[in-house]
Design a protein that fits this description.
globular, alpha/beta, 20% strand, three-stranded antiparallel sheet, single chain, 2 domains, Pantoate--beta-alanine Ligase, Chain: A,domain 2, Rossmann fold
């Protein structure tokens, strides 16, 4: 595996590759886990070259404390990438990605960005889209891979590529989970073993909704709110039943596989998100 920290060196190397090679790209903020590695595995199967970036992007954090707590495990991450047969790791410094005083771009993603993460993390999607566009422009991947755990982000990225003149195909990969059902996340590293077991309640609520869809959205939403709020370890931020096409709240079910239930909650001060597509 080759490791680059400079966009100039990476760009120079990429220019030497045969143009017909299929390049797969996975953008990450490090603290890698099985979910990230499943993206690497998928890319290896579909692409000639797999590139993974490791960059904690401060521009997509609206909470400075959240940024300060975000785990930084670069050496361990690089070891995991090498073991997963990633071809190229790109781990730039802030100054390599942003000019001095550079502001994030202001995008218009329509309805997709107005709810949930867009509402509770103002500026997050502009910061995320800014860095993703920078990566796409630099690397020019054929395909980019994203996990379904960050479902609204995935829909934003799909909207972003429609706005770009040249952009990769976007492939989503199902959420990887612990045995308990807890979605694998970099933030899980901040949880105690007890909290990890408690946090599995989020997925249990989602599965209950999947198995009891006939109860209707209003009753299921009430069930989730009451179940999570009754656990003193949790602070529920939101639970929304949305249409996958625009991430807007729904009162009645759309067609099969066109609905999503999205949850955000804090446990011991750590913010977790999860979802299920129905």
């Amino acid at each position: 595996m080759q490791i680059f920290t400079s966009k100039t060196e990476l760009s120079t190397y990429l220019s030497t590759l045969p143009k017909e090679q299929i390049i797969g790209f996975i953008p990450t903020m490090g603290a890698l886990h099985g979910g990230h590695l499943s993206l690497i595995t998928t890319s290896n199967k579909k692409c000639d070259i797999t590139i993974c970036s490791i960059f904690v992007n401060p521009k997509q954090f609206n909470n400075k404390e959240d940024l300060a707590k975000y785990p930084n495990t670069l050496n361990a991450d690089l070891a995991l990438l090498k073991k997963a047969n990633c071809d190229i790791a790109y781990a730039p410094q802030f100054s390599d990605m942003y000019n001095n005083g550079e502001m994030v771009k202001k995008y218009n993603f329509g309805d997709i960005e107005t709810t949930m993460e867009g509402k509770y993390r103002p500026g997050h999607f502009n910061g995320m889209a800014t860095i993703v566009e920078k990566f796409f422009t630099l690397i020019k991947p054929s395909i980019a891979f994203f996990g379904q755990k960050d479902l609204q982000q995935l829909q934003i990225v799909k909207a972003l590529v429609k706005q770009m003149n040249t952009a990769p195909d976007i492939i989503s990969v199902p959420t990887k989970r612990e045995e308990s059902g807890l979605a694998k996340s970099s933030r899980n590293k901040l949880l105690s073993n007890f909290d990890k077991q408690q946090a599995a309640l989020l997925y249990k609520c989602l599965v209950y909704c999947k198995n009891n869809k006939n109860q209707g959205i209003a009753k299921l939403k009430q069930y989730i709110c009451e179940t999570i709020s009754s656990n003193k370890k949790f602070e529920l931020e939101y639970v929304e039943f949305v249409a996958l096409k625009n991430m807007q709240a729904i009162q009645d079910w759309e067609e099969k596989d066109e609905n999503a239930i999205c949850i955000a909650a804090y446990i011991s001060g750590v913010r977790l998100i999860d979802n299920i597509i129905l």
